[in-house]
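Hello Y.,

Per our agreement to keep a running log of every chain we model this quarter, I'm adding this entry. I've kept the format consistent with earlier entries: sequence first, then predicted structure.
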Amino acid sequence: MSEKPTKHTKVLIIGSGPAGYTAAVYAARAMLKPMLVAGMQPGGQLTITTDVENYPGFADVIQGPWLMEQMREQAKAVGTDLVEDHIQSVNLKSKPFEAIGDGGQKYTADSIIISTGAQARWLNIDSEEKFKGFGVSACATCDGFFFKDKTVAVVGGGNAAVEEAMFLTKFASKVQLIHRRNELRAEKLLQKKLMENKKIEIIWDSVVEEVIGDDEPKNVKGLKIKNIKTNEMSELKIDGLFIAIGHDPATSLFKDQLEMDNTGYLITKSDSTETNVPGVYAAGDVKDKIFRQAVTAAGMGCMAALEAEKFLASN
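Predicted structure for the entry above:
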């Protein structure tokens, strides 16, 4: 097999959520002819989010996948080269920068915008792994439908957990929210909505020890949970478990090449998307563990493209 010719671009955008697509729109309009490599999950986390009610410009509820499709089409329309590939290694020491795709395709770039996002975190217990996809999920909007008139549990205490619990009440007859502390971290308005919902019961100071279920056919029957204040164990009868305990940034590609914090989020300069390597920028959930919104990711994508443009002009 002959080697595929190397693809060169002034701006290589890795990842395709709101940050990546917005960066592409701005870079393309600056006549930089950006190349965007979409990754494993084109559209990112928004493709597993149904109702989006907080993206500016839309009075009616819109769908996450639709919003990503629109951003993708816009990026394409203004001249972005959209590539279906997944980057598996990068070399940020070489000039130009190098990246290699899954199939061995080599990309070189004068600047890179990283918008690889984040993925859901799991409990990491064996029984969870065993029933993943068979009653254990990290995406209520993808799988809630399968639990019509059933009982489900959600683990977590932040905005995501509360939103998942609220969403699941559309289908489930009862939702139990299991939280390891005795108060939620979610914003007050969401907490108020949650407390007012008759279908939701909160189980405080508790952690999931084990998922119980059948082997043939595989399905979830219940949970063993432990009260961390009393160490008391109890069993819950449930049909589905949803994990909403946060996210991990997709930054393993950049280990030992870019500065990260202790949880793996890329570190950028203040009021900037620039990493510790000049010409490499990070936008969206890959560097933001505080806001994690589509609109803030899009804003950073815009910043990254403008900073890359400035960098290329001065080099």
